[in-house]
Design a protein that fits this description.
This protein is of the alpha/beta class. The protein has a single domain, classed as 3-Layer(aba) Sandwich (Rossmann fold). It has six helices and five strands; from the N terminus they run E-H-E-H-E-H-H-E-H-E-H.
Length: 180
């Protein structure tokens, strides 16, 4: 199984990055699955311009950026884990830009049965409406495409190393591999 992890955080050493690295490590140690992490903040993905060229050329975005390569990796993956910090009650702009490019392969994505996970980390206490909104947005994408939502995790962590300090959170994150 190929698992692609999309990190929507621009902080390379923050809580979201820590959580996604811990998930990748757990999967690598405990399964034969292939895992790749892509940091959406390092990609150059422009907004969809609704040109619809992708609808006439096999689902490929024609923008001269990283859109096509990241969407192709998502298409090739059996499972995708979305990780995001909470930004104004939603996912980060970096991750949203990638999600918007799903439009280019809508028909092809609907033919697949992907397993999806989401992890949202914010400074506000849990539970909170912002975490629910993020999980609901990804769940709506799954429902539309016919994909299976395997898990949704949320954690409150304000300082860049707060998540590392929570033994319960680290244990839960490191056991995500069991969901695949």
């Amino acid at each position: 199984m190929k698992i692609l992890i999309l990190n929507g955080s621009p902080r390379l050493n923050g809580n979201t990055s820590f959580a996604l690295s811990a998930i990748a490590e757990g999967v690598s140690k405990n399964t034969q699955h292939c895992v790749e992490i892509i940091n959406a903040a390092k990609l150059k993905v422009g907004g969809c311009t609704a040109c619809d060229a992708c609808k006439t050329n096999g689902g490929n975005c024609i923008m001269r950026d990283d859109s096509r390569s990241v969407i192709d990796k998502i298409y090739a993956a059996d499972a995708v884990i979305f990780g995001t910090p909470v930004y104004w009650w939603g996912i980060s702009a970096q991750l949203k830009a990638v999600l918007d490019k799903f439009y280019s392969k809508t028909a092809q994505f609907k033919e697949q049965n992907k397993k999806i996970g989401v992890i949202a980390i914010g400074a506000s206490a849990f539970p909170g409406k912002q975490y629910e909104l993020i999980h609901d947005q990804i769940k709506c994408v799954c429902d539309f495409l016919g994909w299976e939502m395997m898990f949704g995790l949320s954690f409150s962590a304000a300082a860049p190393d707060d998540l590392k300090k929570s033994e319960a959170a680290v244990k839960e994150i490191s056991e995500v591999w069991k969901k695949f």
